[in-house]
Amino acid sequence: MKRSIMLLGLVSLVAVPALADRGPSKKETGAIAHALIADGYIGWDRIERDGGDWKVTDARDRDGTSYRLRLSRSDYDIVARSRY
Q1: pLDDT tens, position by position, 19-78
Q2: pTM, entire model
Q3: Are the CB atoms for 30 and 51 separated by under 8 Å?
């Protein structure tokens, strides 16, 4: 019995998903969208928390160029940008 409880405890530790990766709340989505639009982006596919920063995939500017962006967690400033 004691062994089963210990095994269950170990399995539950492995089965817990990473808490760092998640989508934004409604409030965060609005703030991120506002920041992206202010920087000239007209669309994007996905926003998720990746470690400490926000990761935006396929952010498109007015010319149609796509970028992968990293935004600061605290003020949503773009801290990294790379073209697809």
Answers
A1: 457 999 999 999 999 999 999 999 999 999 988 899 999 999 999 999 999 999 999 999
A2: 0.73
A3: no
Number of H helices, E strands in the chain: 2, 5
CA 75 to chain centre: 14
Tell me how crowded residue 76 is: count the other CB atoms within 10 A of its CB: 20
Q: What is the DSSP string of 31-56?
A: HHHHHHHHTTEEE-SEEEEETTEEEE
CB 81, CB 60: distance < 8 Å: no
Q: Which amino acid is at 37?
A: I
